[in-house]
Amino acid sequence: MSVDTDTVKRVAHLARIKVSEEDATRMTGELNAILGFVEQLDEVNIDGVEPLNSVVEQTMKKRPDGVTDGNKARDIIANAPASEDNFFIVPKVVE
Amino acid sequence: MTDLTKLTIAEARDGLKNKDYTSLELTEAFIGNIEAANASLNAYVTVTADKARDMAKASDAKLAKGDGGALEGIPLGIKDLFATKGVHTQACSHILDGFKPPYDSTVTSNLWADGAVMLGKLNMDEFAMGSSNETSYYGPVVNPWRKQGSNQDLVPGGSSGGSATAVAARMCMGATATDTGGSIRQPAAFTGTVGIKPTYGRCSRWGVVAFASSLDQAGPIAHTVRDSAILLKSMASVDPKDTTSVDIEVPDYEAAIGKSVKGLKIGIPAEYRMDGMPGEIEELWQKGIQWLKDAGAEIVDISMPHTKYALPAYYIVAPAEASSNLARYDGVRYGLRVPGKDILEMYENTRAEGFGEEVKRRILIGTYVLSAGYYDAYYLKAQKVRTLIKRDFDLAWQNGVDAILTPATPSAAFGVADQELHSDPVRMYLNDIFTVTVNMAGLPGISVPAGLDKDGLPLGLQLIGKPFDESTLFQVGQVLEDAAGSFEPEKWWG
């Protein structure tokens, strides 16, 4: 399978990365090189094989549902590019 | 006085205990080396000299009373991927501009609890995506090794290139690193240092900037097998904050060093003999086999038929997980924000400017393979192939193999800005061909320096172990190190 420039632009939009016409053209070639490389997997017989979802045989650890952390609003917004009164500031999203 | 920066961690540990020198003297010696070398080698992105001095003084106070942890007073470098409280933590990406976490990662917390001293944060490929340390926002790291009679700058490998260069050039005693497809072992091999990626689940991933969560593992780079055992013992832990951290007590890895390998079964996988592999790599491998044979190990040929599919499967799984993990960088909560006419354009502008080319490439591949209609053809298939890769290893262990010996990399270090490698992303990816299988199966792997090539550049051998059997890797690794000796670059930098 290979991608065309329109697909690259659509995927870039899904990934929220702005691309110029020039970027999209260049990336189309690069992505097709990678997709061509992974095509080798078509040679492998995967009939009846279960996907590997965890390399470690361990049941998911659970803990009692409880408050273990918190009251750190100041820490949480400390690195924000824009904040006010412990809120993140973003451009207006609702009219 | 002897050059304190030439000591191993094991030697310095004894010297500090005997009060032959103080941690402050040791730390100052490394700060001096960093100041002299960093302009040429670019290993550190931030040097925390004052913090290091304070930590060293605190260690000296403990040592004076006969107290102190396993790493008391030992100066280390920390890869920029690990969260360090109040200190530069940006995964060497522009998008995390100015980020200073209000907490430490579990791995670094463990190191400080054991008394280690932080010298600074180390350069790396952006978000650990790269095999040459050239994708860093802070520019490439230079390998302290050069070809004989040449002054061409070589790469230290990646993504932990800063860690490898800092250790090899004596800018720290040891360093933390991370490995998603070979990012500890390949740079270790390129710089004549020892690097171990432990079993998935051995070191907590909490506070380590995520790349591909099912593959990422932290580990050390150091001068000797023993030093890497000492560091791993402190880095590893059982951590309730990481659900993939495994409930197995961390053993005393150093106890394995010096044990005989007599009777151990070492597997040699035929499929790691790749087409076009340089003769020197094959010779090195044969030398390694002979050393282990001489030490009494039993060498057995094994077959791992799915080896060649590990790298293509990796280039589906790792970008897919990365595209999800890196969705959080949106210019809202931390790091860079580039304004736009609305919030959507702000996201797109921020991510376009904040991410470098390789990171964008992988996010796009990951987004594409996870997009509607392609999941089964790519991601699900890759995860099934991963099962087969793991099964190859499981069969070897079932047949009584204790460890597997392979080359660490298909070549020695290459030049900075190598045109051929940069013209085709897949060629750069092939650097990880021998290491990536280990991440796909979640196993431990160690790279040990084993010799120099015809140009005088270091080459490494890799040992792969059973899950949570790092001890055997240290045991066998020590035999390789004893036979091969140690390798030090000729000093040309500041």
From TrEMBL, chain A:
It is an enzyme of class 6 (ligase). GO terms for molecular function: asparaginyl-tRNA synthase (glutamine-hydrolyzing) activity; ATP binding; glutaminyl-tRNA synthase (glutamine-hydrolyzing) activity; transferase activity. The keyword Protein biosynthesis applies. Pfam families: GatC. It catalyses: L-glutamyl-tRNA(Gln) + L-glutamine + ATP + H2O = L-glutaminyl-tRNA(Gln) + L-glutamate + ADP + phosphate + H(+); L-aspartyl-tRNA(Asn) + L-glutamine + ATP + H2O = L-asparaginyl-tRNA(Asn) + L-glutamate + ADP + phosphate + 2 H(+). The keyword Ligase applies. Keywords: ATP-binding, Ligase, Nucleotide-binding, Protein biosynthesis, Transferase. HAMAP family: GatC. Heterotrimer of A, B and C subunits. This is Aspartyl/glutamyl-tRNA(Asn/Gln) amidotransferase subunit C.
Automatic annotation (TrEMBL), chain B:
The keyword Transferase applies. Pfam families: Amidase. PROSITE patterns: AMIDASES (PS00571). Its EC number is 6.3.5.7. It comes from the Bacteria. The active site is at K79 (charge relay system), S159 (charge relay system), S183 (acyl-ester intermediate). One of its GO terms (molecular function) is ATP binding. GO terms for cellular component: glutamyl-tRNA(Gln) amidotransferase complex. Heterotrimer of A, B and C subunits. Allows the formation of correctly charged Gln-tRNA(Gln) through the transamidation of misacylated Glu-tRNA(Gln) in organisms which lack glutaminyl-tRNA synthetase. The reaction takes place in the presence of glutamine and ATP through an activated gamma-phospho-Glu-tRNA(Gln). Hydrolyzes indole-3-acetamide (IAM) into indole-3-acetic acid (IAA). HAMAP family: GatA. This is Glutamyl-tRNA(Gln) amidotransferase subunit A. It comes from Roseibium marinum.
